[in-house]
């Protein structure tokens, strides 16, 4: 009888732990198979912690002497410590980096960022890495440890400076060039344009024309338009943009200039905005982020109104609150990216 009673704790604990872990897995992950990777990872961490607690509970219920039980628990602790030690340099470092950026909020989904040689729009912010979409529509996953250990420049959503740099010969006076470059920046929609002389070289003067772009989503298009406007404005004034050494490489006739003839487009088809093609995933991420924040604010407002409401008004607010919560839960699901797979 005494032998049988020793197995009662393990007989109760083992099925209870197995069933409990299975039930929690179904509640956290099993019934939410379409969760975004960010939310899924958080729930996986919770399951990992609960599994460790369950294994320790089973070890405490083993029908062995206390010294053996302590050795089993010590072995479990040694295994867990070894896993943490080997993975701490990567897994937990990235995890802590992701949590730190959640607190500091250096950028949001949809922002243009530059870190070292990487430049693009933020498409997804995860606990382990941050995904950006580059100018060539590629998706690059940057580890969070890299982001927190290197300077990150962010293009402000309120506006950014778009600039173009070019070199012109010393035979052209800067008082003639600066107004032309300012007009070029204004003609392509940039606000408050200004020009700086950046360098006095051996054979040429380097100018930099700048202008404020309020709609940062069209950053690439605005830069291209500025280059085109600079070309058109200087060529219209018969100013060549050519290396001073050009004459030394190929003899030219007197008065010959390298200015293309103006071309007038016959088609009236609207030009395609590069940003709509290049940063499609980042655009969707920014829209989801904005909608998520709007829904959270709406839910908070409805919860406050629900506390003061009565009767039919309370039922209406409760129904509206449930709809907003369902919409917020839907935003946590990953977007369909099957068309991007090779």
UniProtKB/TrEMBL annotation:
Q: How does it sit in the membrane?
A: Multi-pass membrane protein
What is the annotated localization of this protein? Cell membrane
Q: Which UniProt keywords apply?
A: Cell membrane, Coiled coil, Membrane, Transmembrane, Transmembrane helix
**Region (Disordered) location:** 323-342
Q: Which residues form a coiled coil?
A: 285-312
Q: Is Membrane among this UniProt entry's keywords? A: yes
Query: Which InterPro entries is this protein grouped with?
Result: LSM_dom_sf, MscS_archaea/bacteria_type, MscS_beta-dom_sf, MscS_channel_2nd, MscS_channel_C_sf
Q: Which GO terms describe its molecular function?
A: mechanosensitive monoatomic ion channel activity
A Pfam family matched in the record: MS_channel_2nd
What top-level branch of life does the organism fall under?
Answer: Bacteria
GO cellular component assignments: plasma membrane
The Mechanosensitive ion channel MscS domain covers which part of the protein?
Answer: 90-152
| Major location (coarse) | membrane
What stretches pass through the bilayer?
A: 6-24, 45-65, 71-93
What is the protein name for this chain? Mechanosensitive ion channel family protein
Native source organism of the sequence: Oceanipulchritudo coccoides
């Amino acid at each position: 009888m005494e032998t049988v009673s020793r197995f009662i704790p393990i007989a109760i604990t083992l099925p209870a732990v197995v069933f409990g872990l299975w039930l929690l897995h179904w509640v956290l992950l099993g019934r939410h198979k379409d969760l975004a990777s960010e939310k899924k990872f958080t729930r996986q961490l919770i399951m990992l912690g609960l599994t460790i607690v369950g294994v320790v509970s089973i070890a405490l219920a083993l029908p062995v002497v206390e010294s053996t039980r302590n050795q089993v628990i010590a072995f479990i602790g040694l295994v867990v410590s070894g896993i943490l030690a080997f993975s701490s340099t990567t897994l937990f470092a990235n995890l802590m980096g992701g949590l730190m950026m959640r607190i500091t909020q250096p950028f949001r989904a949809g922002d243009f960022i530059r870190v070292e040689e990487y430049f693009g729009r933020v498409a997804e912010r995860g606990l382990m890495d941050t995904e950006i979409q580059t100018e060539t529509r590629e998706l690059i996953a940057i580890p969070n440890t890299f982001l927190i250990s290197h300077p990150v420049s962010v293009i402000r959503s309120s506006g950014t400076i778009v600039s173009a740099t070019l070199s012109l010969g010393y035979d052209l006076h800067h008082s003639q060039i600066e107004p032309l470059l300012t007009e070029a920046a204004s003609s392509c929609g940039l606000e408050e344009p200004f020009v700086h002389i950046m360098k006095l070289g051996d054979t040429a003067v380097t100018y930099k024309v700048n202008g404020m772009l309020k709609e940062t989503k069209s950053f690439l298009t605005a830069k291209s338009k500025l280059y085109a406007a600079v070309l058109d404005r200087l060529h219209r004034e018969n100013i060549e943009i050519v290396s001073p050494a050009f004459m030394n490489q190929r003899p030219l006739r007197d008065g010959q200039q390298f200015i293309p003839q103006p071309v007038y487009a016959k088609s009236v088809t609207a030009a395609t905005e590069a940003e709509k093609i290049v940063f499609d995933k980042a655009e969707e991420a920014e829209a989801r982020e904005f909608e998520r924040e709007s829904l959270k604010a709406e839910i908070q407002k409805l919860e406050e109104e629900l506390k003061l409401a009565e009767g039919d008004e309370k039922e209406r607010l409760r129904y509206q609150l449930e709809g907003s919560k369902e919409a917020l839960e839907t935003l946590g699901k990953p977007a369909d990216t099957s068309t991007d797979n090779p």
